[in-house]
Amino acid sequence: MTNATTAGPTGPGDPKSPPRIVTGRFGLDRSWSLDAYLSTGGYEGLRKALSMAPAQVHQATSDSSILGRGGAGFDAGRKWGMLRKAEPVYLVVNGDESEPATFKDHALIEGDPHQLIEGALICAYAIGAARVFLFVRGEMALGLERLQAALNEAYEYGAVGANIFGSGFSVDVVVHPGAGAYICGEETALLESLEGKRGYPRIKPPYYPAAIGLYGAPTVVNNVETLSNLPWVMRNGSEAFFSLGDGRSRGTKILALSGHVRRPGNYELEFAKVSFRELIYDPALGAGIREDRGLKAFIPGGVSAPWFGPDHLDLPLANEKIAEAGSMAGSGAVTVFDEATCVVRAVWRITRFFHRESCGQCTPCREGGGWAEKIMRRIEDGQGRESDLDLLMDICDNIVPGVSWPPAQTTICVLGPSIPSSVASGIRMFRDEFLAHIRDGRCPFPPDRLQRSPAYA
Amino acid sequence: MVLDAGSRQRSIDVARLTDDNLVRARALIELYPQKRSALIPLLHLVQEQDGYLSPEGIEQVAELVDLTPAEVRGTASFYDMFHLEPIGKYLVAVCTNIACLLAGSYELLEHMEQSLGTHPGGTTADGMFTLEDAECLALCGNAPCVTVNWRYFGDVTPDSWDALAEDLRAGKLDGEVPSHGTLCRVRRTAGIRAGLDEGATETTLPPAGPAVELATSRTTPAVLSTLQPGAKATAAGNGVAGDGITGSNLTGNPTTGNGSDAQ
């Protein structure tokens, strides 16, 4: 049995074993229970926060310099500071994790639900929230059960509800299930959904829910991982958090590693201190590519991000470094393709995802996604034409003028502008492979070699 | 969709919410500052009761939140998890998105199509399984993954799927994989408390219902497979052996129970 007491950090200085800020309780017996939580410092961060003024809690968060962990990487303290001065104020926790290859919030909700509740309460106290809504992706049934059970325990314990821990601060927390729609991860679509409507992203401006959010009230929308950091920050101080990482990327980050590595999984690592090469090849992390094959490409931050090739392996996993190199750290989802991967098939599947999940409000996304998917599909099926590559790039250009990064926006939200990321990456990096599909009239990769998982071997 | 007469019958048998569910519905509405916010939780409740969004259920939800049935249907149809027509006993969603594709999910899906005799969107002739070709289900460390009535199974192979299907057909997993539409078996036990004057009573809540023991639920192994990769990562970094986790095929033989709990 893995015992948490034997799994403490080995010491500072090793980015591969930083303090386990958000995953520290993973592996504990019944890590989701109040007993396990209280025996490992649970709710101490909230008690400490309640002993301070709300503005001091806000300041501590700003000092920690924590960037949002949902994808956009917006400074959390700054986000709270943008709230319009009006009442009521709401806190909505974005647990609608659906970005393909991202599975960190799923693990946090199931593995340590009290940590999320405590983090949300700390934020609620700092911003004076009238109510907290924990929006959890509907498909995560066990996560919803664990979170609701934890919330029941927290009420019983006096950490939620009226006069929390005798401090005079009161707030209620509601677990709200989603119903299956990727777009509801976009914060304004999430608010629409929480209002009982179709998950249509709202027209901007107003740009930020901090001005006009849930029911038109000022609202903070923060990601699960972002808030899960707060109990540790309150217990250990913002300096301890800020001392980890580099530049604007501070603290730790969960990297969700998937694809053709030997050890896929969630890895909490010091932000900005580990390179993609280490993440993928370190024996304690990804442990290299299955069957010692070569690396073809990898996606650095979820399928909305442009791809990188082997020449980007030494880039550190830091928001600003990845942005400078032309992609994004996004949700922290790294997906690895080995040399036997059919790029056309991979791009087709990603494009199909965006097409299926488009809410349909904006023409470039609704139509462009569909056309790109159909063309990708015919290339994969051996029915492609040489002119298809220009046609695909033209569609990309219609969705994102100039096919630039960060994308110029023609749509209400960034779902549409994410379509060209993989299409253009695929064509730019692997043009010959597309042409081989077209000239040979078939996919050059034998299907049995293509997608065989280690489980089959 | 192929459904036998018995399944079709359900759309006539089922009606409005039961008394207990109506109490639950009213308690849900009280959790929100505006009634309409309870719409999606209420629709999940209808689906839990009826297995799909029955016309009568939609009508009643509309009455409860002061909308028209058309507005309710129009909202429900946006969301993948809601079914406006009856489906099979088990909703089997196979993730085919990028991480699962790289781990062979299309080959798995093809096998499932052949063994079940249906295609994504279809239901088996016996009304047992409805197959879905799903988007990323967020279990990418254990790809390919499948959910059955939203209970997760990771590292699924054609063989382990066959074993799982057999167990489901035999009713061996009835306690662990609830009926379709059942989302959260843990009921909220606290009403809204903040902002109430002293002496005021909090929202009335329906009885909590049968206790759900999460730790021993058979969905636990699937979840541990979510957690283990993370635990593995950090454990390995701290010199604790973390191997042998990805190799443990939790769905290969789900009836072997909770050996993984010991991890």
Give a brief outline of the structure.
The complex is a heterodimer of chains A (457) and B (263). Chain A has 457 residues and is of the alpha/beta class.
What does this structure look like?
The complex is a heterodimer of chains A (about 450) and B (about 260). In chain A, about 40% of the residues lie in helices and about 10% in strands. The model of chain A is unreliable at about 1-10 and about 450-455 (pLDDT under 50). In chain A, helix 2 (about 45-50) packs across helix 10 and helix 14 packs antiparallel against helix 15. Chain A has about 450 residues and is of the alpha/beta class. The longest helix of chain A is centred in the last third of the chain and has 18 residues, at about 365-380. In chain A, about 65% of the residues are buried. Chain A is built from 19 helices and ten strands. Chain B is α+β, with helices and mostly antiparallel strands and about 260 residues long. Chain B is about 35% helix and about 5% strand. Chain B has nine helices and four strands. Chain B has a four-stranded mixed beta sheet. In chain B, strand 3 and strand 4 form a beta hairpin. In chain B, helix 2 (about 20-30) packs antiparallel against helix 3 and helix 3 (about 40-50) runs antiparallel to helix 4. The relative contact order of chain B is 0.12. Chains A and B meet through helix 5, helix 7, strand 3, strand 7 and strand 8 of A and helix 3, helix 5, helix 6, helix 7 and helix 9 of B.
